[in-house]
Amino acid sequence: AQTVTQSQPEMSVQEAETVTLSCTYDTSESDYYLFWYKQPPSRQMILVIRQEAYKQQNATENRFSVNFQKAAKSFSLKISDSQLGDAAMYFCAYRSAGGNTPLVFGKGTRLSVIA
Amino acid sequence: GAGVSQSPRYKVAKRGQDVALRCDPISGHVSLFWYQQALGQGPEFLTYFQNEAQLDKSGLPSDRFFAERPEGSVSTLKIQRTQQEDSAVYLCASSLERVHEQFFGPGTRLTVL
Q1: Cα(A24)–Cα(A4) distance, rounded to whole angstroms?
Q2: Which residues of A touch B93 (CB under 8 A)?
Q3: Is the pLDDT of residue B65 over 60?
């Protein structure tokens, strides 16, 4: 079974600074997808960024980018120019390829943004 | 268009009561997932539907949990004889077939006293 580990329960960052959230995963599969989801206090899970394992290029979405290291099974999220609205729980998630399969989530990292 | 909606947003039940949680997926989304999120944890998979067919229920924690999607759209998660350990947020997500992204609803927070 696949597992996802987020080793940082809490992180904080100054407004306008950069922060990196860590995620490692364990799988024997070669084709899969990785995601970062944001969950604010409203509980709505919002997709931040996704990465296909077969793509070597790291995904970017505006201020959000990932460092995907397939051999090391590492998938970190970098948030640049942090904003107060970035404060939330962040979950790393794994999904097998091939049809609709459920997401496997890490335990999350709570990000605080300091004004 | 409208996103995934769930009702009720909050539910308080006495131990032993039955509860029903509703999920309205995005129109046209074939796949529907239920997840359980305990306090301070990440969501955990419960069950999966493709249209009206329940293809995977391996995550349901006990036979007190039952889910259905009779017409392939709205889904209901039912928990019989609720226990305190059932207290959690129940999230519903839907997606198009063969598309990566799952869209989540706001969840139902269930508290069992």
Answers
A1: 6
A2: 45, 103
A3: yes
